[in-house]
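I'd like us to work through together how a protein chain folds, taking it slowly. To get us started, please write out a protein record for me. Label the sequence line and the structure token line clearly, so we can match residues to local backbone shapes. Once you have written the record down, we can walk along the chain together.
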Amino acid sequence: MIDLQNLSVAHRQGYEQRTVVHDVSLQVAAGECFGLVGPSGCGKSSLLWVMAGLNPNWQGTMTLAGHQATSGKPFTGQLRRDVQMVFQDPYASLHPRHRLKRTLAEPLKLLKVRDIDDRIEQGFRHVGLDPALADRYPHQLSGGQRQRVAIVRALLLEPKILLLDEPTSALDMSVQAEILNLLNKLKQQDNLTMVLVSHDPDVIDHMCDRAVRMERGYIK
């Protein structure tokens, strides 16, 4: 489902580029949860953002859900739908001044999806939320509820790959466990392939079938 070969990632700094991930090669099978663990600044989130199509500054070969990605170009078409991401801070994917239903509906409208309200209602039920919450603003929900809504946002496009960037690190311990158990349940129900970034080995151990450690931009 995921095949990276000799992948390097750069960040722009003014007129220059600084390489932050060096020659990473890895494969993730369909239905697997694969972990990237390591200290802050080691390059794990930078690698994840490239796999999400959020940073075009990479070199190497990247195949996701059968689609060959092209360096320097944004994800489009089916590839854009097949790969979705859940961020550490759900505010990154939820507009603070829009009701949740409006935020969740916008990508579906662009794709001319039918029965949008029904899909959103089913999505809320799928993650254990009352569909009535869709009429609220993000600040009216708890941190755990917001992260569940962020998961709904990612799953509405029915992706094959779900990328998770420290999805529970901003939550307290009891809510962390709820979200991790939910993600495990969704992985099985929806046959998702997941890549989970975390600095916490216990989270990786709980969630992942396999994992690698990153240090200073390299896989160890």
About this structure: The two ends are 22 Å apart (CA to CA).
